[in-house]
UniProtKB/TrEMBL annotation:
Keywords: FAD, Flavoprotein, Signal. It comes from the Eukaryota. GO terms for molecular function: flavin adenine dinucleotide binding; oxidoreductase activity, acting on CH-OH group of donors. Its cofactor is FAD. InterPro entries: FAD/NAD-bd_sf (IPR036188), GMC_Oxidoreductase-Related (IPR051871), GMC_OxRdtase_N (IPR000172), GMC_OxRtase_C (IPR007867). Residues 9-23 form the Glucose-methanol-choline oxidoreductase N-terminal domain. Gene3D superfamilies: 3.30.410.40, FAD/NAD(P)-binding domain. The keyword Signal applies. Residues 414-433 are annotated as: Disordered. This is Glucose-methanol-choline oxidoreductase N-terminal domain-containing protein.
Length: 433
């Protein structure tokens, strides 16, 4: 069977489903999407991301250049990770801040002058201005904590019906107190590491924890308002400085939008296979998990198609075999009864009683009473196998009522007695009549 496999990611897959008419009906109708193929309220729901908070530490000594790597996994389900040799330079920070300001301005203008959805041009320009390698020569390190399997969930909605525009996504970082507590414990763990003797050579002696926290607080990592007191309150620090680590998942979750075979519920021939189907994201980068999912499902789909093809062939062969067997059985019966009837008619034409080939009937009486009992008269015919289990021809079981009446009249005329047809019919025949 031909089918479509959608793999556009946690952001793209629910967006494309909605644009194709599969999603919450009220939301689709509000955007003028017609026709609504399927009212699927769970499309775009359950959006999640692993929230991340970091502490930046300038180093007085050279450090190894390293991308983000997992340092440790805590008992409270936070991943502690580190990177070194890369610095958020002043020029990069300024470009970042300018991009955020432009986005704020556009939001304000859009809200006051038009009711249409926001353009993503400012976001595009903003990302074009980012060059992480620019001025990345200052010695420093970054230690971050990341909440694995966050409880907080958000949703995805369309901003317009242009597939080239990004949808509106809300992850609701730290909406649930459980996630916020994990962040606080994660940041506290990082602070213990920074204050340890082993780490002292990678930190300026005059650097304080409050000063390091204030560096991150001053960088616009998100659009949330900043609180000066957040350096004294780790809960507020987590809320103010949260950022994404790009582990988006949800929106087309298993059991809600797709089944265990990743087929969209309520639609034939459509699957979604990507991170949007995850209920939870793995603690580390989900790329390898998604690649394994794709290969696993690809192999499974191929095997299913092969099995369907094999089952179809066996079904056709089996059907052909039993059809041939049934036809042969009926032809065999037909030939048997044609021969039997021909012999009977020939005997009657010569005034002889019907002949029986069964050895069990040898020596049997041939008067009309015996004929009525032995021939089990039925109308019109009752078929029976040509051979009994013992390999002998069975008792003849077909003679029409009219044929029996003719036979009875012939026998009665010879005996000069009036015929009684009812004596030749079995009780079942009398009941049906």
């Amino acid at each position: 069977m031909n089918e479509v496999i959608l793999s556009a990611g946690a952001i793209g897959s629910p967006q494309l489903l909605m644009l194709s008419g599969v999603g919450p009906m009220a939301h689709l109708v509000a955007h003028g999407i017609k026709p609504v193929v399927l009212d699927h309220p769970m499309v775009g729901q359950g959006m999640g991301d692993n929230p991340m908070n970091a502490i930046f530490i300038p180093s007085p000594t050279p450090v190894e250049v390293s991308l983000i790597q997992v340092v440790g996994i805590t008992k409270f389900d936070s991943y502690i990770e580190g990177a070194s040799g890369v610095i958020l330079s002043y020029s990069w920070t300024r470009n970042f801040f300018d991009g955020v300001l432009n986005y704020f301005n556009e939001m304000q203008t859009s809200r006051t002058t038009t009711s249409t959805s926001l353009s993503t041009q400012s976001i595009t320009d903003f990302f074009k201005s980012i060059n992480p390698l620019l001025n990345a020569t200052i010695k420093a390190g970054l230690i971050l904590q990341k909440v694995a399997g966050p409880v907080s969930r958000g949703h995805l909605e369309l901003r317009n019906i242009n597939p080239n525009d990004n949808p509106s996504v809300r992850f609701n970082y730290y909406q649930e107190p459980e996630d916020l507590e994990k962040c606080v414990e994660g940041i506290a763990t990082i602070i213990k590491v920074i204050n340890s003797k082993a780490f002292s050579k990678f930190k300026y002696p005059e650097a304080t924890i409050h000063g390091l926290l204030d560096i991150i607080r001053s960088v616009p990592t998100n659009l949330r308002p900043r609180h000066v007191t957040s350096v004294l309150n780790l809960k507020q620090f987590c809320i103010d400085t949260v950022m994404t680590i790009w582990h988006y998942h949800g929106g087309c979750q298993v059991g809600r939008v797709v089944d265990k075979n990743y087929k969209v519920l309520g639609i034939d021939g459509l699957r979604v296979i990507d991170g949007s189907t995850f209920l939870n994201s793995p603690g580390t980068n989900p790329q390898a998990t998604i690649m394994m999912l794709g290969r696993y499902m690809g192999q499974k789909i191929l095997r299913e198609r092969e099995m369907v093809s094999v089952r179809s062939i066996f079904f056709d062969l089996n059907l052909a075999y039993y059809t041939f067997k049934e036809v042969a059985w009926k032809v065999k019966h037909l030939l048997y009864y044609i021969g039997h009837i021909s012999l009977t008619v020939e005997n009657l034409a010569h005034g002889k009683p019907p002949s029986y080939s069964s050895r069990r009937d040898e020596g049997a009486a041939t008067d009309h009473a015996a004929i009525g009992v032995r021939m089990k008269l039925h109308a019109p015919f009752k078929l029976s196998p040509p051979l009994a289990r013992d390999g002998h021809a069975p008792q003849p079981e077909i003679v029409s009522a009219a044929f029996a009446a003719v036979l009875c009249r012939r026998q009665a005329a010879a005996a000069e007695t009036p015929p009684d047809h009812r004596d030749l019919l079995p009780p079942a025949a009398l009941t049906r009549r």
